[in-house]
């Protein structure tokens, strides 16, 4: 009944909308999603495979007894067994030498996780940790919004749904656009942005997807899909890939907003803070989706074949009322790293074979280099693992290391770590109270602890052309060299 009322409310809201005539987006039938787009889960080549998976994965919800025991035993291995959470410091062995790629100088940060694989291995950073620019307050935004950066300008939005482009060179906003008419003003907006070829693509928590031409400050197309979107956005080959809160994956044409195909996955009744996460495996022509129902899908975006499905709940754990939590997927050289909120695992993205798993509760998105995985855990450990077998190379208790330098830096003073990345051959940790803490990636040795933002950090910092950009708690933009 709640779901019926929910969709009725969405219908009433979207059915009575009227936007500014100046946008010109509601003057023809193109405002509506493509009628009956193909659901690739119903294609003959995928249907039987999905049926087998559904029988194996979900029959327990109906009977508490699986009708296809052989399928369950073969495919639903508990990849996250109940082992003790790792909380021990470990020194790197003398014969272990770690290497990473040379720092990459990126000119833009045009999507949430920078790359199609969600992985940020080693970015160029001048590493002077000096504040070189500070703006005035840019918005009254109450969301933890991380900025994008495109063509030397910052791109962000506020809780009213106003998208703005801010020029550091001119020290002002050079573009502001709000898509929403008065009927939607009262709703707090959550936008998902990506930028490609001077066009901003937007999905929101009201079920809209639209595109804005930056040079003209006008909407190109806009569609309402009736269900709020809840995922990052990827662009490849003129397709937008994104998912809604009903865990339905969409491939939408970026030229006209028409739906090329969809794929409906299992709906999660209870929702955590985790959002559906997508990455693109261009090497193997696959889109990878981790949904809020603890399912991981690999789909070939060229032939629309479902390659494999992994369910992170064991046969004895499947529960439609269970809350699933995770962090974004990351991929490097066919090695896929996933988390379920209580454990970390590495997979071969082609065969779906689990290479290893560790009882690590990670607290930020991980990073993969050529041979290693770097994670920060909820137990305040910074850990380096071997990407092939999951062996722990070194592990450091963050606050034990900091106390050796200065005892005044307590966990309360430092605050919560909100972001981890590798830049200028160092591991950088950012805390919500404004601290930047750096480590040597080769052995986990603490290099520096410095408070760089007095009011604290909001959202996740980004690094572009050697500079760090972030919002402070007063919604001011700060730039560090």
Written overview of the protein:
This protein has a domain at 86-140 and 346-481: Lipocalin, CATH 2.40.128. The relative contact order is 0.15. The chain contains five helices and 33 strands. By secondary structure, the protein is mostly beta strands. The radius of gyration is 23 Å and the shape is globular.
Short description:
The protein is mainly β and 481 residues long.
SS class: mainly beta
Mean pLDDT: 85
> Any idea of the CATH class of the domain at 86-140 and 346-481?
Mainly Beta
Q: How is the CATH topology of the domain at 86-140 and 346-481 named? A: Lipocalin
β-strand percent reads 35-45%
- Mind telling me the C-alpha Rg? 23 Å
Instruction: Give the termini distance in whole angstroms.
Output: 55 Å
What CATH architecture label of the domain at 86-140 and 346-481 applies?
Beta Barrel
What profile does the largest beta sheet have?
5 strands, mixed
Strand line-up in the sheet with most strands: 1-14-13-12-11
The number of E-state strands comes to 33
Low-pLDDT segments: 1-30, 57-81, 315-320
Query: Share of helix among residues?
Result: 10-25%
Number of helical regions: 5
**Principal-axes shape call:** globular
């Amino acid at each position: 009944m709640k779901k019926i009322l929910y969709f009725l409310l969405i219908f009433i809201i979207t059915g009575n909308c009227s936007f500014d005539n100046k946008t010109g987006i509601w003057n023809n039938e193109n405002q509506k999603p493509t009628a009956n787009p193909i659901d690739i889960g119903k294609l003959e080549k995928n249907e039987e495979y999905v049926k087998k998976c559904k029988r194996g994965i979900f029959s327990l919800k109906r009977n508490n007894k699986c009708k296809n025991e052989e399928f369950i035993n073969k495919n639903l291995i508990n990849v996250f067994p109940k082992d003790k959470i790792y909380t021990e410091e470990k020194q790197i062995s003398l014969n272990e030498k770690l290497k990473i790629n040379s720092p990459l100088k990126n000119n833009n940060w045009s999507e949430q996780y920078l790359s199609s694989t969600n992985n940020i291995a080693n970015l160029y950073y001048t590493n002077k940790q000096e504040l070189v620019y500070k703006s005035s307050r840019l918005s009254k935004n109450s969301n933890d919004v991380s900025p994008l950066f495109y063509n030397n300008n910052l791109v962000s939005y506020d809780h009213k749904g106003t998208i703005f482009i801010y020029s550091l060179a001119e020290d002002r906003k050079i573009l502001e656009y709000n898509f929403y008419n008065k009927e939607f003003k009262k709703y707090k907006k959550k936008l998902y942005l990506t930028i490609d070829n001077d066009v901003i693509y937007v999905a929101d928590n009201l079920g809209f997807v639209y595109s804005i031409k930056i040079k003209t400050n006008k909407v190109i197309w806009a569609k309402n899909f009736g269900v709020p979107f809840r995922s990052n956005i990827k662009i490849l080959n003129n397709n937008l890939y994104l998912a809604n809160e009903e865990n339905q994956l969409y491939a939408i044409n970026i030229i006209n907003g028409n739906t090329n195909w969809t794929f409906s996955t299992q709906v999660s009744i209870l929702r955590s803070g985790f959002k559906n996460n997508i990455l693109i495996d261009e090497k193997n022509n696959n889109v990878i989706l981790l949904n809020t129902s603890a399912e991981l899908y690999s789909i070939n975006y060229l032939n629309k074949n479902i390659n494999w499905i992994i369910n992170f709940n064991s046969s004895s754990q499947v529960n439609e009322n269970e809350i699933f939590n995770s962090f974004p997927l990351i991929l490097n050289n066919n090695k896929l790293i996933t988390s379920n909120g209580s454990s970390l695992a590495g997979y071969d993205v082609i065969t779906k074979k689990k290479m290893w798993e560790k009882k690590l509760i990670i607290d930020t998105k991980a990073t993969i280099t050529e041979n290693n995985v770097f994670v920060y855990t909820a137990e305040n450990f910074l850990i380096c693992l071997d990407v092939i077998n999951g062996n722990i190379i070194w592990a450091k208790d963050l606050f034990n290391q900091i106390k050796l330098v200065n005892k005044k830096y307590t966990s309360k003073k430092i605050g919560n770590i909100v972001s981890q990345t590798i830049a200028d051959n160092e591991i950088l940790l950012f805390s919500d109270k404004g601290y930047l803490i750096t480590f040597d990636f080769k052995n986990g040795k603490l290099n520096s602890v410095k408070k760089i933002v007095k009011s604290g950090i909001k959202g996740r910092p980004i690094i572009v052309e050697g500079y760090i950009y972030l919002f402070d708690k007063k919604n001011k933009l700060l730039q560090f060299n």
